[in-house]
Amino acid sequence: MTTRLLPVLALLLASVATSHAQTAPAPAPAAEPDYPIVRLGVVSYAQYDAELENRDSFNAFDLTRGYININGQLASNVRFRITPDVRRITDSSLAGTLVLRIKYAFVELDNLTGARSWVRFGAHQTPWLDFEESINRYRVQGTVFAERENLIPGSSDFGVGLFTPVGKYIDVQAGVYNGEGYAQTDTNRYKSAQGRLTLRPFAGRGIANGFRLSGFYNEGWYAADRPRRLGIVMSSFEHTNLVATLEYLKATENPSAAAPRDIDRSGSSAFLELRQGMSGWAAIGRVDLFDPDEALGNNSQRRVIAGGAYWFVWPRSRVGLVVTNEQVHYNAAAARPEENRLLVQTHVEF
Q: What mean pLDDT is predicted for residues 130-153?
């Protein structure tokens, strides 16, 4: 009799266990964070500049960038950022003084057009410079090509902007801005429409995943009938041990009200970084070729930057030591002396 009861008891126990498993309460959803969430960070670039040609062997220690980043999240899809920027001014009242000003101050709404998308309103990153600096991490050495030649007045401007991915192959960022950059007030009613489209044709295909093609266009005006147009095309490649960019730009500008005429400018830039990885040793090189006025002959210029770096990278911070030699050569019509400088710089970010 006992032998016959054992299988029956086993079936009953299994049935009870199954029933209990089916009726067990589902785990409670994760609780909403306690908003607002505010994070504080710093970016600073300190340098030693030794002029090796002209400028009477000038040399100096300086702070070329100092940011205090205040990033906040007010809700699951609402963020803000306020970033004071340190710069040295040269006007008569505070000549030579380091002063604090606002570079970024914006509110961001996330995921309005899909995952990873955002809309920003206020002083925020315009479509091109911040994107290029995410590939070329050596902003500490100096501004990238279009900003260095004063074709884009800084990486931040007042306006409204949108970023959205289109599938896994395309990113789009566009906006309407004052056009004068964050350091200037808008002088008239004319605005600047800017847009960037980036194509990753081999997304998810091994080493080729790091290849991208990007285009940027700015349609703006200094005033009525005085255009401020800029187009850029760039190919880029990013890998653990190699980063490379090659870009070409073309601009039409009419900046002077005193002697107005359209000036066509053009140039190209190549950048290469060979590195151990995100951390460790790196060798860098960059060449910029620029013609500031195509109507004038023999007035182009060439900038050559070469050097090395060592990076320490942690999950939420990084430190870089960068040593470069920078030379600028001007053709005869430019009537400017050659430049050659040694730069020893530090990038501290957390």
A: 97
**E strands within the chain?**
37-53, 59-75, 78-88, 98-110, 118-125, 156-166, 170-177, 192-199, 211-223, 226-239, 242-253, 263-275, 280-291, 301-314, 317-330, 339-349
Domains annotated for the chain, with CATH where assigned, are 33-349 (2.40.160.10)
CA distance 302 to 286: 10
CB 242 within 8 A of CB 275: yes
Residue 323 corresponds to which tokens in the numbers above? 């040593």
Radius of gyration of the chain (CA): 27
Token digits for 322? 């960068």
Contact 340, 325 (CB under 8 A): yes
pLDDT digits (tens, 9 = 90+) for 227-273: 999 999 999 999 999 999 999 999 999 988 887 899 999 999 999 99
- Per-residue pLDDT tens over the stretch 46-73: 999 999 988 888 999 999 989 999 999 9
Q: How many CA atoms lie within 13 A of 2 on its CB side?
A: 0
Nearest residue to 324 (alpha-carbon basis) of 270, 289, 286: 286
Separation of alpha carbons 343 and 192, rounded Å? 35
